[in-house]
Amino acid sequence: MDALLAVGTRKGLFLARSTNGGPFEVEPVRFTTVGVPSVAIDTRGPVPRLLAGIEYGHFGPSVMWSDDLGETWQEADRPPVAFPEHTGAALAKVWQLQPSPTEPGVVWAGAEPAALFRSEDRGATFSLVEGLWNHPTRPMWQAGGGGLCLHTIIPHPVDPERIAVAASAVGFFRSSDGGASWEPSNKNIRAPFFPEGAQYPEFGQCVHKVAMHPARPERLFLQHHFGVYRSDDFGGSWRDVGADLPSDFGFPIVVDPTRPDTLYVFPLRADVDRTPVDHRYQVFRSDDAGVTWKGFAHGLPDEPVHSAVLRDAMCAGEAGVFFGTRDGEVYGSRDHGETWTLIAKHLPDVLTVRTAVL
């Protein structure tokens, strides 16, 4: 089994490859000095396509693609992700790139300011999804600590008409008509920063990340600023499943692709300093869809640490579970989090981690 690991950092993209289950070998940096906040590995076509959302600094953000595993990169002749003039908006960042599981050639992009874009040419060029941009609640959307960003895209694995997104600090929205219309879907998600009696609003929740297993698409898991939640009706309603965790604050949440009821989170010390609980790297795993949790740290540093894991800096695939830290370390586990191995160190601040079997 040959596996690819893509690590987007504050200064460049790092690719690591594993052959026949061997150790990951990290290759020289791509896009050196350029921020890479989003990456996707699209394995649907005759050859894998790598997509990278990059930040050119004063030249602005863009999306580039490679069909030779990162050896060469291409960019569309026109800005691939751009707001139409009538919106009066300017693209700040591409936070998410998500190939569609049901529509060949379709790739979704999540942007800042919070917006959804759709590509029909495998991510070369994108167009704005006007239905979400024109949602009547938009004038009341507020930015979270990381900005007004659409950071999660959940396309249904069977029905192309159903798709959901999450934005900070807007909440979870879903569509049943391919993105033409949208509804807020945040029932039972508590927002304690609102006044007493108004802590369960229709929208305005600070959602950090949402995950789904393609074999059980009605079940979603959500990491909130104040809780870990589960839905069994594609976001129609939610219930808190984070009571067994040492902290229900964190950024990433990941579902194991080989175990639909297994998920992973990385708890942080809430709003104290957003560092790991007990200042130790520890990944918590649930094998019963969030009912109970257990922490794992074998192979992770024993000394105190003060670095966090960002919302997209954790992923799971057939090759294992992986996460990258803000101090430039990347760890992987091939036994569902029981033990961990250091893959890379001394990288720039890790923003996103993605993996695929080639």
Characterise this structure.
The model has no long low-confidence stretch (mean pLDDT 96). Helix content is 2%, strand content 39%. It has helices spanning 130-133, 270-273, and strands at 3-9, 12-18, 25-26, 35-42, 49-55, 61-66, 93-99, 107-112, 115-119, 127-128, 149-155, 163-168, 171-175, 183-184, 207-213, 216-224, 227-231, 239-240, 253-255, 263-265, 283-286, 294-296, 314-317, 320-324, 330-333, 341-344, 350-357. The strands form seven sheets. The protein has a four-stranded antiparallel β-sheet with strand order 3-2-1-27, with no helix packed on it. A four-stranded antiparallel β-sheet has the order 7-8-9-10. The protein has a four-stranded antiparallel β-sheet with strand order 11-12-13-14, with no helix packed on it. The protein is built from two helices and 27 strands.
